Amino acid sequence: MVIRRHAVWLGLAIGLLAGCSEPYALPDRNAADVQAEEERLATLLPAELLNGAGTCEVRLLGRDGSSSFAWAHCEAAPGGGDVFGLSIPVRVDGDRVTQPGDGSAYSVSVRRMFPERLAEAVLEDDGRLRP
After folding, report:
1. What's the rounded Cα separation, in Å, for the pair 37 and 20?
2. Is the pLDDT of residue 14 over 50?
């Protein structure tokens, strides 16, 4: 009986530890290279995501070689009319911007665009990844 209780407690402890993973580590926004990349992306993304009109705030989520992963919040008011916007994770390879698909294609494309741990963080989207 005592052994069975210890086995139950051990199983619970292992389950709790396995479920408590570290949150995805974001780049330090105070670092000069991170600030420079966020500025570059903020300049590049309006042309790619808003057809040139508007502005984007960017949060760099990580890098891998020449690829940058970011979350962009962009807004535009074409012709001075109503403001529209989008908040979206993006992958940027040089000047080529990739954004996830809509609807049921979203999670599949996010997993294809980002490294595994970052993809899971984007899909969980607790808000801390946004600019």
Report:
1. 31
2. no
| 22 vs 123: CA distance, rounded Å | 15
Query: Distance from CA of residue 15 to its chain's centroid?
Result: 27
Which residues touch 81 (CB under 8 Å, ≥6 apart)?
Answer: none
E strand residue ranges, the chain: 55-64, 67-76, 84-93, 96-98
Which residue type sits at 113? M
- Angle at CA 130, nearest 5°, toward 91 and 31? 80
The predicted-structure confidence for 28-80, as pLDDT tens digits, reads as follows 999 999 999 999 999 999 998 988 778 999 999 999 999 999 999 999 877 76
φ, ψ for residue 69 (rounded to 5)? Answer: -115, 130
Q: SS3 of 97, please?
A: strand
**Which DSSP category does 126 fall into?**
-
Beta bridge pairs of residue 93:
67, 96
Q: Which residue, 48, 42, 52, is CA-closest to 72?
A: 42
